[in-house]
């Protein structure tokens, strides 16, 4: 009995040591990305300001069409009329989606260009750690961008959100990010084997973008697309967020939303990791890893 | 188990690695490594010597788990690199030959910090190790500058520091002096031999296509050619075992060829090089002193002798003797088999 416990303790210690090591690697990857990004300060500043510049026309266009910031037809569809908040929240989501599909998908490709992919892959951490580090950097970058966007929008228009909804919003977004990580792993493996992996990214990005009710309510999609949209993790993210923050009516219960999103996240992560594992094997057999 | 000195630091057995190139009619299979077997014992400085395209880098990449061999086994400190990849990567310090293996936009210190975390070093322990290595390699003053401003010799020093971060037992150094000027080359060679091997007792696999480097550094050398390991011996054994033992070099005025020494017995082979009015006769003989007087007489009968020199065979001579190709030659693509399907 005592021996068994001892072995258990050792196992626990080894596992925690290992997890600490992996976490340190994830963090180091994140820090390294920030340092690399900040070597070009002008580009960095632009990456924060550009989104705001792109968002403004949408908002003004919306106001022009509706003739004010309140839309009766939007109220009929989703139960809230404030188009500014509606569009802003949706726009913020496009950022997250882009992050999963581009930043993460291209993380390993970027290392390939630097020439550092092999040095990094020779280190004693599993490959998913690197994409995780990239994901962390992208999320933080994204949050910073969102912060800038929100400040600008508030300065110009003021947005009305329900502060009590912030906590559940963060929860549902965190869950969605897990799913996006899975999608990101999937994209990362594609860019490792196809030099034109960007095309796959683009196609997938377009599909997800159309299916996710970002700039419009779910109800305006054709029925079969509404059904498909229910398999897309970002749908739950955006609908949940708007529900919590501005009281959008959604066609399912909150419990359903969390359960489905949880399952989608699991599925995507399992799928992404599996595809990545297979492709990593394949590149090491065929010797195409160092090429670009 | 890994502390046991009888366990080889590295063991490759019948390793085969093929690459497929092209499609359809042009499909080719390249046997980059063709049944390589070698064993490195703890503390050994072992050379893998061969011309361009011989398969050195491919073998190193297989050992470092960056490639999966098609056949054969590789063990690091008794652990299979395929089954126990994470353990083995922790034991290996890798220096790859390409220049771009670090982040050029980051400083040396930032590069080292990043890689240290990947190898499980954090906090004070990490900072101490980095400062120690920067000091050891004389990089402290430039450590905060971006690598893009470094010379290639300095970048190579940073790469060496990176390979040593986690104090690995086994170092894989792929062409560590490639493209460096003689001064840096000398520094790196001295560092590898004196500091890494003698002082720190590291087991080192060093690949190179420079004869002198292998000769100077390595206790044992594997000759590799077209993916096959031709032989493994010490430099002295190689030189002793080739049939021609010594080379007598005679420099004389005017242009002559081997005919000049026609009557001299005991000569195995003569070659002549003519340059700036001076001929150098390379006379291969069992023992130089046996033919010396006769050669001098024969030459003096025709012209003036400018100098006489007896040389031991170099590893280059050995390599040419064993493989028929010179080390300077590029054997890439030569051993490809072509398939049509
Ligand atoms: N990833 C790859 N895909 C296809 N062929 C490859 C690949 N890597 C190496 N080769 C081929 O395998 C052979 C051995 O190459 P390798 O790089 O191992 O030689 P090397 O001894 O390191 O030569 P060098 O001195 O040029 O570095 C060469 O013919 C090379 O073209
Ligand atoms: Mg090479």
Strand content bin of chain B: 25-35%
CATH-defined topology of the largest domain in chain B: Rossmann fold
Element string of chain A (H = helix, E = strand) = HHHHHHHHHHHH
Count of DSSP H/I helices of chain A: 12
What is the CATH C level class of the largest domain in chain B, in words?
Alpha Beta
Q: Number of DSSP strands of chain A?
A: 0
| CATH superfamily grouping of the largest domain in chain B | P-loop containing nucleotide triphosphate hydrolases
Largest sheet of chain B: 6 strands, mixed
Structural class of chain A: mainly alpha
Uncertain runs of chain A with pLDDT below 50, 5 residues or more? none
Radius of gyration of chain B: 24 Å
Helix content of chain A: over 70%
Notes on the structure:
The complex is a heterodimer of chains A (292) and B (341). Chain A is mainly alpha-helical. Chain A has one domain. In chain A, 79% of the residues lie in helices and 0% in strands. In chain A, α1 crosses α7, α4 runs parallel beside α8 and α8 (166-193) packs antiparallel against α11 (233-246). Chain A starts with a helix and ends in a 6-residue tail after the last helix. The relative contact order of chain A is 0.13. With 341 residues, chain B is an alpha/beta fold. Chain B has two domains: 10-234, Rossmann fold (3-Layer(aba) Sandwich), CATH 3.40.50; 243-312, Alpha-Beta Plaits (2-Layer Sandwich), CATH 3.30.70. Chain B has helices at 56-63, 85-91, 108-118, 123-136, 152-164, 182-199, 211-217, 235-241, 288-300, 315-323; strands at residues 10-21, 28-40, 45-49, 71-76, 79-80, 92-95, 170-174, 203-208, 220-225, 228-233, 246-253, 267-275, 278-285, 305-311, 337-338. In chain B, strands 6-7-8-3-9-10 form a six-stranded mixed beta sheet, with helices on both faces. In chain B, strands 5-4-1-2-15 form a five-stranded antiparallel beta sheet. In chain B, α3 (108-118) crosses α4 and α3 (108-118) packs parallel to α5. The longest helix of chain B is centred in the middle third of the chain and has 18 residues, at 182-199. The radius of gyration of chain B is 24 Å and the shape is globular. The model of chain B is unreliable at 332-341 (pLDDT under 50). The interface between A and B is medium-sized, with 30 and 39 residues. Residues 56-57, 97, 174-175 of chain B line the site of magnesium ion. Magnesium ion is lined by residues 56-57, 97, 174-175 of chain B.
